[in-house]
Amino acid sequence: MRLLIARCTVEYSGRLDAHLPEAIRLIMVKADGCVAIHADGGAFKPLNWMNAPNRLVCEPDRWRVTNDKGERLEIVLVEVYSDTTHELGSDPGLDKDGVEAHLQELVAAHPEALADGTVLVRREYPTDIGPVDLLCRDAHGATVAVEIKRRGEIDGVEQLCRYLEYLNRDARLTPVNGVFAAQEIKPQARVLAADRGIRCVVLDYDELRSITSDALKLF
Amino acid sequence: MRLLIARCTVEYSGRLDAHLPEAIRLIMVKADGCVAIHADGGAFKPLNWMNAPNRLVCEPDRWRVTNDKGERLEIVLVEVYSDTTHELGSDPGLDKDGVEAHLQELVAAHPEALADGTVLVRREYPTDIGPVDLLCRDAHGATVAVEIKRRGEIDGVEQLCRYLEYLNRDARLTPVNGVFAAQEIKPQARVLAADRGIRCVVLDYDELRSITSDALKLF
DNA sequence: GTGTATATCTCGGGG
DNA sequence: CCCCGAGGTATACAC
User: Fold this and answer.
1) Which of A94, A173, B90, B157 has the fewest Cβ atoms surrounding its Cβ within 10 A?
2) Is residue B216 helix, strand or coil?
3) B88 neighbourhood in chain A, CB within 8 Å
4) What distance in Å separates the CA atoms of residue A144 and residue A137, rounded to the nearest whole number?
5) Ordered DSSP codes for A78-98
């Protein structure tokens, strides 16, 4: 990783056009060739960047980065205050816990958390317009399409509506009911769901996980 | 801006839980207090981060970052290879051209690009559920609600559908037709638009801009 | 502050 | 390669 502290101006042209006036910034070049220009603020997002793969041509006072998609980044170096390179080696990567996929696994293992007597038909039930998170049957044997989110917002309800509309065209499944399940459901999403006859279920991640680990303890 | 090159492990706990095994990484602390941990690849996104505002407590072998939302980032420093600080000063910021706002301006100036005889009623037409990008009248005097995007995806069509549903409740406006205009329209969005009776228009940004500059040359 | 819409969104998975 | 969905999305702006 090469780190440059320099007074510079930057032009980007590609998905849009952007210009950075002269100022002191950090220019980061990673081992994969990607280039990012950071100011001393503004969270983790760089002001400008260019992803790998690309071609980087470094002249003393001007760097040019281009790629095959026609994007172009040009850095004019007015004054370089620091220029260091460090060998970092490859990174073992990040372990995450608590994302939607994990939530889906837990609910799939415990569909009764949605309503007593609910059983799983299958996960990621495929349709032409995308996979339904869970397809279940309720205590009465009716089909239930389940959309699972960490944060339940209006988009998720609309996504579920599209699936329901699609699934209800299948005479073997209809009537299909909808359940919108999330760790947190925004008021607006709740209103839309009610309007569309979709039931909302708030999931307790820790509780679901503890049920699973309790079940494991039986073995 | 403080830059640390160090062998470290990292734990994040908050919106999810995440763990980084021991490896050499860049730790960046910006003037606003935000902290980002970068590997030597993976474009501009850090492996882990903590946005400002937060509290950073640095011990020689352990940094703890916490905020008021209950998030927590803990960095264990196994070995520090480099530790530098640079004064960057404030940044004048980025000038952009070609974002959705510009596209909306251009179409507002040339509504005939949507269909011959189309005239603008107003931009950002307010409704209870948000502003409609453009409200127009077509050659027959019928009201047209226009949603403008750089990239037309399914969410944008849903957004327009909500506006149409709302606007059509107003007896003075109904029937309101929908136009979905974008520089690029994804297949799924096109299918949904067709299903909902919404017309799609592909916009040519450069052409729209050249019409405008041609018009300016007349003065 | 919440809610809504945008982003050079990034990133990863599947066809 | 594109398409599509998820994200600790972040960020700006209106109410």
Assistant:
1) B90
2) helix
3) 5, 23-26, 39-40
4) 6
5) EEEEEEEE---------EEES
Q: Which residue is nearest to nucleotide C9 (CA to C1')?
A: A45
* Torsion on CA atoms B194, A160, A185, B17, rounded to nearest 10: -110
Ranges of CATH 2.70.180.20 domains, chain B: 2-85
CA of A12 to C1' of C8 (A): 9
pLDDT digits (tens, 9 = 90+) for B104-141: 999 999 999 999 999 999 999 988 888 899 999 999 99
> What is the distance in angstroms between the Cα of A71 and the nearest Cα belonging to chain B?
14
- Round and report the angstrom distance from CA (B192) to C1' (C2): 30
Å from A162 (CA) to D4 (C1')? 15
Beta-bridge partner residues of B24: B7
> What CATH class has B100-217?
alpha beta
Q: What is the pLDDT of residues A8-43, one digit of tens each?
A: 999 999 999 999 999 999 999 999 999 999 999 888
Q: Is the CB of B156 under 7 A from strand C?
A: yes
- Strand D reaches within 7 A of the A15 CB: no
In this structure, the number of other CB atoms found within 10 A of the CB of residue B58 comes to 14
* Protein fold of B2-85: Protein Yojf; Chain: A; (2.70.180)
